[in-house]
Amino acid sequence: MQQWARFAILGAMFVVAYLLILAWQKDYGHAETQPQQQTAVVSHEVSADLPNGQTAATASDMPQANIATQQTTTDATAPVSQQLISVQTDLYHLWINPKGGDIVRIELLNHDKDKDSNAPFVMLESDAQRTYVAQSGLIGLNGPDSNRNGRPVYEIEKASYTLADAKAEKTKDGQAVKVLSVPMVYKTADGVEIIKTFSFKQGEYPIIVSHKVVNRSSQNWQGQMFGQIKRDNSDDPGKSSQGIFTLGTFLGGAWGTPDEHYNKLKFDNFNDEKLNVEAKGGWVAVVQHYFVSAWIPGDIKLTQANGQPYSAKLESRQSTDNMNIIGFTSPTMNVPAGTTAEVDATFYSGPKIQSELKDLAVGLNQTVDYGWLWPIAKLLFLGLQFFHNIVGNWGWSIILLTVLVKLILWPLSSKSYRSMAKMRVIAPEMQRMKEEFGEDRMRFSQEMMALYKREQVNPLSGCLPLLLQMPIFLALYWVLMESVELRHAPWLGWIQDLSAMDPWFILPLLMGLTMFIQQSLNPQPADPMQAKVFKIMPIIFTVFMLFFPAGLVLYWIVNNSITILQQGLINKGVEKEREKRDVV
């Protein structure tokens, strides 16, 4: 029976390793290195570091309207300006192309490109290396983006905006907040004026993109708003190389509705498993490691009426030049002559911060994908946030969380460790029985079961601590991999990124040492082969942990250290009880 328990413990340990390998392969094993594109030298009027104004999408990128396109309007705007509109807030530095009004570059000012660089993380860009842009406009019967002559060119007031241009507005709770508006105007020869406005709030990532149609013509105006994200098949810039592993989670499309909160869609399946869903309150996104870009359809307002949420059509497709496109299209908007109408949507491009995403749309916060152990992972993350609010350091937060988890599991694990301590005490008696009964395995088993019953020992209880820790360990792995709050988060000394491996391998070596000490406190296997396997387990797990996130290894070290203390105290108590009983 004891031998069976040993194999059960060993098997449980390998199950942990196997599940971690599966999780690693799921997250990282399918990333393919895309061929390097030849760098092109682009000439434009701004700066060589800025995206090119000529990289706007062609008409072939536009979604299909649900009504026939009528080419009756003419472009009354000035010639194309190659100068992009620069917008800088406390969170963003982005550029908008006046041709089409697309967002062609976004730099996230509060997130570094990597832990060794002060350069901002580039979210969207459109150059020779990568195409990743947010497009929006009006299509349909009179929509200017359906014009066969190309995207509309908007007139702009100026080419640069900062928060100094923002106006203070009061929120619902009476607080003043700065709102920066970036308007662009497109006019047709027959008297239709379209005002496209980007609205930014200080301290917030969501951008409100609205289209106001002022119909001064003598005819009815019809059109639909679309918003889409266009991306090529280049690698995820958020992934990092860790020794023999390449880190990077899911890269692809995602969408959700109030009925189906979260669905992932690989780029390869944008055509084969094409998204074609109509929903009110839905969203579409492109997901990458730690960051997400998403369109959330908004409201339609006719003349002076209050805005009403509209039911949008969510779609995915691949363009003829192998670009991946996922977006939405609003219902047809009718604007009679002499009236106005306004339609809007929200665009989010930034870190996957759950507290902000959940307020934008149902299910959007699930782009922080914690896998099938998400209930445990969510609790662990909330615990980490709680301690971080107190100590202000994610490393110490992991340590405090580990202590809390061990305290919660202390009663259950104490029973298990007490049973293991008794097995350690009766180990000499079991060895004597084995020598006495020799090859008579039936008699030996009978005597061993009697000894277990007399000493109140459960040999299977040794599996319990590991089985309890296994889901917590796996869930914490996903928390460290998916929570942008822990990206590039330092602890102390040489650990400057808890989501990356220990560069000096100190923590894995300490983990192996604590595992060896912990195993020495357990009853040793009587079988020589089992004893050898258990002795090399710390070495195997040390090598296994070399390339895992430092935060995860830190958790395991603290967990082992508390276990050593707990087992040591229980072992001493059981030994004293045995000595007293032997004296009596």
Automatic annotation (TrEMBL):
Q: Which GO terms describe its biological process?
A: protein insertion into membrane; protein transport
Q: Name one GO molecular function term.
A: membrane insertase activity
Q: Which residues form the Membrane insertase YidC N-terminal domain?
A: 85-381
Gene Ontology CC terms, in alphabetical order: plasma membrane
Transmembrane region(s): 7-24, 394-413, 457-480, 538-558
Localization recorded for this chain is: Cell inner membrane; Cell membrane
Record keywords, A-Z: Cell membrane, Chaperone, Membrane, Protein transport, Transmembrane, Transmembrane helix, Transport
Question: NCBIfam families annotated for this entry?
Answer: PRK01318.1-3, yidC_nterm, yidC_oxa1_cterm
What this protein is reported to do is described as: Required for the insertion and/or proper folding and/or complex formation of integral membrane proteins into the membrane. Involved in integration of membrane proteins that insert both dependently and independently of the Sec translocase complex, as well as at least some lipoproteins. Aids folding of multispanning membrane proteins.
Q: Which PANTHER family match?
A: CYTOCHROME C OXIDASE ASSEMBLY PROTEIN COX18, MITOCHONDRIAL (PTHR12428:SF65), OXA1 (PTHR12428)
Please give the HAMAP family that the UniProt record associates with this protein.
Answer: YidC_type1
Give the protein's recorded name.
Membrane protein insertase YidC
Organism for this UniProt entry: Acinetobacter kookii
> Which gene is the coding source of this polypeptide chain?
yidC
